[in-house]
Amino acid sequence: MKGLAGKWVVVTGGSSGIGAAALARFADEGCTVTDLSRHPSPGGIACDVGDLTQVAAAFREIGVPDVVINNAGVSFRHLALEITSVEWQQVLQTNLTGVFNVAQVAGRRMLEAGGGVIINVASTNALVGHPHYAGYNATKAAVLALTRTLALEWAPSVRVNAVCPGYVMTPMQEAEYSPEMIAAVNAMIPLGRHARPDELAALLAFLACDEAAYMTGSTIVMDGGETAGGLASR
Known about the structure:
The chain has 234 residues and is α/β, with parallel strands linked by helices. It has 7 helices and 7 strands, in the order E-H-E-E-H-E-H-E-H-E-H-H-H-E. Helix 1 links the parallel strand 1 (8-12) and strand 2.
């Protein structure tokens, strides 16, 4: 990808899944990478993104990043009537407040330095209804609105985009779904499978590179055709 070599890339939630794949991809592109997570991979920085004080301290150590991938997220699989207030707050604190905290702290530094790229990882759950994930769905939809707002406020120097993955075979997905459930989901996806984390990482690398310099405020879906049709298509 053009213009990535030598860039400093920060990935939140980089210890597994899409985040780990993103760290590996950007490292392969010649970037310096930092994992910002509660339990970071070696060389990362321990940080709860939902805590603004911790985020500010982490970026004092990091300095000015060129690219930030806002990937950290949590979910609980419950019907809406079964979600506890603790679970609701935890999902909002990480998935929405955490995204804002990181974007605000990093964005201020990028604006002062003259430029940067922020990519927020949302979900197809932000686009269509999914039972059992009321809190997760609500936060991911809010992330899309936040992305568009930041893109307008911070143009032209800082680009802000969002990606909406569909089903991705991550440790979080495997923990929540049985093999039978995964097979049933695959049967409804036109491409017949979950995405691999490295496929999402490739999209993130493109959005961060110079070849995507005219993209901001955009939402890019990568879902194997999941949201291309309605119920009749499935």
